[in-house]
Amino acid sequence: MIPYVVGLNHEHAGVEVREKLAFSDSKKTSVGREIRAAIGEVVVVCTCNRTEIFGLAVDAGGVNRAGQLLGQAADFSDEMRANMFYTHTGDAALEHVYRVAAGLESMVIGEPQILGQIKDAFTHAEEVKISADVMGKIQQHLLETVKRARHESRVGFGQVSISTLAVQLARDIFECLADKTITLVGAGEMAELAAQHFAAAGGRIVVVNRSEERGQALAGRFNGSYRPWESLGASLSQADVVVCSTASEEPVLTRELVA
Q1: pLDDT tens for residues 109-156?
Q2: How many other CB atoms are there within 10 angstroms of residue 59's CB atom?
Q3: Maximum Cα–Cα distance across the chain
Q4: Assessment of whether the complete model's pTM goes beyond 0.70
Q5: How far apart (Å, rounded) are the C-alpha atoms in residues 214 and 209?
Q6: Backbone angles phi, psi at 250, to 5 degrees
Q7: Is 49 helix (H, G, I), strand (E, B) or coil?
Q8: Is 110 left (phi over 0), alpha (psi -120 to 50) or beta?
């Protein structure tokens, strides 16, 4: 069997393209089952910055077919798939997966979130039975190797993520964040990480979100306040720092809104 990787990331496609491959768990399951039935074991990895399938194929034809199925799931034309997807096979595929899991292919080198996302992808694949023994062995060796790499090198030394960089930038501007209002637009994973780091730096957390339940829950965790989506404009005018991280397909912070 030939290990392979097919996908795209932040270096090969913009947000508007990556969003077409931002699969829900149910979509990952259906795509994975189709590839599993046609080709072999597979793991589907979806993050903010990449969507990849990591699988096993009998031959090059199987690898090409896997790429076709991934493209079809996002309604990509053959031309789009050829221009935007990268493909790695054999040792190059394994090296790529290990580099991704170690954070070496991340937008912020060494960020730790990706390893958890890779683990979740393998777990999901096992639960929905699109992976089996071979992928299980690869996962075990992958996790052991990445942990060793992080322990023996300075990859990920300290705290590195988009959120920590945002805090550092804010500190460069304001020096002290203790009296600053940090408005988070959205209440997903990235907003939670931002809230954690800004709250630790002393910032006052304000969460603006479409779902009141999720917004209230996030704000409550960090002794912050929740504001409904309709108050976004007013909230922006009162903010010292704004972090926007939503799943919207349209721009949220428009010129008119911040003017």
Answers
A1: 777 788 889 999 999 999 999 998 899 899 999 988 888 887 777 665
A2: 11
A3: 60
A4: no
A5: 8
A6: -115, 155
A7: coil
A8: left
- Tell me the C-alpha distance between 49 and 106, whole Å: 8
Q: Which residues lie closer than 8 Å to 237 by C-beta, 6 or more apart?
A: none
Check if 2-152 and 162-258 are the same fold: no
Domain locations along the chain: 2-152, 162-258
Separation of alpha carbons 232 and 105, rounded Å: 34
Any catalytic annotation for residue 48? yes
Q: How confident is the model over 26-42, as pLDDT tens digits?
A: 999 999 999 999 999 99
Tokens of 148: 């060793």
CB within 8 Å of 108: residues ≥ 6 apart: 160, 161, 162, 165
What single-letter DSSP state applies at residue 74? T
Strand pairing of 241-244 and 181-185? Answer: parallel
End-to-end CA, the chain: 57
Note the Cα 81 to chain centre separation in Å: 21
Are the C-beta atoms of 2 and 57 separated by less than 8 Å? Answer: yes
* 218 token code pair: 């996030």
Of these residues, 46, 48, 176, 244, which one is catalytic? 48
Query: Distance between CA 125 and CA 135 in Å, rounded?
Result: 9
Query: 162-258: which CATH architecture?
Result: 3-Layer(aba) Sandwich (3.40)
Encoding tokens for residue 5? 């990787």
Determine the Cα–Cα distance for residues 170 and 176; give it in Å rounded to an integer.
9
Domain with residues 2-152, CATH architecture: 2-Layer Sandwich (3.30)
